[in-house]
Amino acid sequence: MEKVTWGQVLARRLRRLHVTDPSADLVGTAGRLVGLHAQVASSAELIAAVRTPGYALGDAPTALWTDRTLVKTWGMRGTLHLFPARELPLLVAAWAQRQWPNTNAAWVRYHGVTGDELRRITEVIGEVLPHRVLTREELLAEIAARVKSENIAAAVKSGWGQMFKPAAAGGLLCSGPERDRSVTFTSPRTWLPDVAWDEQPDEHTAMATVIERFLDVYGPATHADFSRWWGTDAAKARRLFAEHAAVMTPTDVDGVACWSTPAALAELTGTDAGADTGVHLLPGFDPYIVAPVGHRAHTVPDGFLDRVSRTAGWISPVLLVDGVVCGVWSHELKNGALTVTVEPFATVSAATKKAATVAAHRYGELFDAEPRLAWG
Predict the structure, then answer these.
(1) Measured by CB atoms within 10 angstroms of the end CB, which terminus of the chain is less buried, N or C?
(2) In contact, 48 and 63? CB cutoff 8 Å
(3) pLDDT grade, residue 160 (50/70/90)?
(4) What is the pTM of this model?
(5) What confidence tens digit (pLDDT) does each residue in 294-312 have?
(6) What angle do CA 335, 339, 343 make, to 5 degrees?
(7) Going by C-beta distance under 8 Å and a sequence separation of 6 or more, which residues neighbour residue 319?
(8) CA-to-CA distance for 363 and 345, rounded, in angstroms?
């Protein structure tokens, strides 16, 4: 088993995640990261912006609703992401192997909808959305007219979209442009006319591709890391890794048994473990923090994880110094002035403060305001 160090791993991850190696374009950024986390819409834009020098606020909406080169839908872990439109068939094929949701007795009691009713809801969505863009209320009316259940209306109105996620995973539903401040839904198969659905890979090939890309960009990682990122149980992830062993290679990271890809491992062994990876202000829900979960023991100091990964899955914006989280930060834009408040976990050097000021200028460009750093 080839041996590498955590220093090498973190330096390479920063490059592969376009933190130290900028991306050329928005769609390329979304593709490399396997989606931009968009549960909070502004986070998706900032995640793209700090990696893509030519990005301006508003580019993502243009790509979504005008160019249709991005698509917004529920993806990994049942959370909203922006994906390259051309990659949706691949992802849908891979999602077919994920048994979601687990409509057990507890799920049925909580939502008031049975597994059979959920399957019928999904079928109806597939029937009514092609060539249409419907608000949640309009889609609910279509569902209620075809599925008779007194609990469906309340379930569909839930802000979490639980009733729509199986349809999204099946490539039957994606987000449409807002209408009068109301969210809308449509069928990606008619909304994205240039996507080659007829070239959709089979489930096995799609899953192998997803695992390979995860390990290439986020790895080395374990099957448990993949399960948390993908949104499946650890036992299922272990079976998937066994089924797709051909795309991966075992890797020892300072005594921790992980998996990588052959190409990634070759690059890792040539990476300088002591490389200065710089000072960065990463936005909320940044993929460097989201995955792999197992890396947090080496990226977040002891005693500060709850400041970074907060309740309800909220991931804080972070101050990153040479691949390690050294604090959290927030920003406020008021009367044309941008204030960036950094709360370090320990005393930081003057050089770090100077570098953080430089990093903050990217946000100043985005908001067209000169940033002012405040240290808490």
Answers:
(1) N
(2) no
(3) low
(4) 0.95
(5) 999 999 999 999 999 999 8
(6) 155
(7) 279, 280, 281, 325, 326, 327, 328, 329, 342, 344, 348, 356
(8) 22
